[in-house]
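Q: What would this chain look like folded?
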Amino acid sequence: MTETAPTGPGTDDTPADATADATGDATADVAAMLGRSGLPAGPYELAYLAAEYPYLKAGIDMLYAVDAAKDADPALRFRAGAPAAR
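A: My prediction, written as structure tokens:
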């Protein structure tokens, strides 16, 4: 399994206008998420979060892309009486 970590700004061959479009979309996404959660953010905070959002989202998407984890049973319950595996 080959995975690549998301790269930071300016390290890929993406045209500048495509980056601007992605940042505009990220700004709208971040503003919507903050608004839904009731968290206030000033213009500088919104700009910072929007710049980082694509890289954070890519990292989170990689966590969900692991094949072995797709069918795993989440640890939503703990049974103290269950015997430990040997």
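The two ends are 29 Å apart (CA to CA).
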